[in-house]
UniProtKB/TrEMBL annotation:
This is Xanthine dehydrogenase small subunit. Pfam families: CO_deh_flav_C, FAD_binding_5, Fer2, Fer2_2. InterPro entries: 2Fe-2S-bd, 2Fe-2S-bd_dom_sf, 2Fe-2S_ferredoxin-like_sf, 2Fe-2S_ferredoxin-type, 2Fe2S_fd_BS, Ald_Oxase/xanthine_DH-like, Beta-grasp_dom_sf, CO_DH_flav_C. It comes from Acidovorax temperans. SMART domains: CO_deh_flav_C (SM01092). The keyword tRNA processing does not apply.
Amino acid sequence: MTTRPLQFLRRGQPVALGNVPPDRTLLEVLREDLGCTGTKEGCGEGDCGACTVVLGEPDGHGKLRYSAVNSCIRLAHSIDGMALWTAEDLAEDPLIQPVATSTQPADQTTHHSALHPAQEAMVQCHGSQCGFCTPGFVMSLFGMYQNRVCKGQSISRAQAQQDLSGNLCRCTGYRPILDAAQQMAQLPPMAVNEADLLQKLELLALTPQAPEANLAYIAPATQAELLAVRAAHPQAQVVAGATDVGPWVSKQHRQLAQVLDVTRAAELRRIDDTPEHIAIGAAVTLTEVFARLTAQWPSLAEFAHRFAGLPVRNSGTLGGNVANGSPIGDSMPLLIALRAQVVLASQARGERALPLEALYTGYRQNVMAPDELLVRIVVSKPASSEQLKAYKISKRFDDDISAVCLVLNLDIADGTVQRASIGAGGVAATPVRAQQTEAALQGQPWTEATVQQAMRVLQAEFSPISDMRASGDYRRTVLGNLLQRFWLESQGGGAPASIAQLQATHLEDVL
């Protein structure tokens, strides 16, 4: 099998590469095939952010969507038809131009003689120390600049911390880098010529393509085509954002003979709203998903921010996280608590829906047939009396894997628990529903005595293992304590002081 030529825009010009293997990462293409060694390899698994680059693609409304992503775990073919920027491109891209202001007319500005504000701010604020992580930070700043400064938004300290959560600095240089994030808006502005770039992307999309039937990397444009390919090639490795598959390639050196990319199927990239439901396509990114869910459930804001770093959320998809089925994946406990349904589809049998917790049969095992794919997740909108809280316990506040994840969704009316839905992660071989605890709460008065009894049920309901993240005893204790915390917060007391103080601590505070 062969692959189509990989085509993308860089510095406003098309790049075409032939014979790129289906499992080659974008970082490998940049460093080894194109000689662009300014983008660094750090962890090789999407944790440190040294390899961060920015992708641009049409948003469907005549604008570009900019996404900072980890190139070390992003499959190269997944950026076909997109625009790409690395730290080496910002001062060299002819489509990034100075913007005229009241004090600086356009005809007096110059290009290629000045750094981009994301770079200049790092220089002025002394944001680079050893320099190894600097290209990744600069690219996250560039993404922040395009998505916030260019839209007239200010950058708060807290927002800068959130947008840089996927970048780690071993020299402990966070304070000046956060200074740089806020300094960007004070520098002479620059902007991407989006009209020109969108036109170039449209021309790139018109390039004749060979049939996909026996390609090594297949990315169908519709759900029907996707299911047909799945039926014909059930052995192909399914990928979405590749935030889990990518480390198989980069760290475990697995070879993927054939890849089926679901992220180009238009139906899987949609979020559809009805008065009763939100239907989320399996290929919608986690960034887009959490923006929509947080709009419906504002209490999820912190949980959404703590779901990996921003570059991972920009690449990873909700469907990929759910289908992967990791017992420590954070989206599944949330979706279980929201009583989500997953919709599976095959070419031969059509669609079927089932509760999300019924998808799993064992550790990373599920009920999907070889010709089936997960195509969307359907979530019911909340009743006015529902209270939703999602808790993530991990060793590090930002960009870390949960030791325990507990999400509680209680419908409390007239002082009684009318309905309880509880999802848990990190306590069993699969993401699970705490059915015994739900039964212990449902129909009971919402009192401290009820909560104390339910805590004992919750701690006895699971037998979590001990591993590098936490012991089984710790996990059981935390489960009960989180339920108690939910009770305290429901009484208006907020989180216990020790917890609130811990959560308020960021790296900047201790430097």
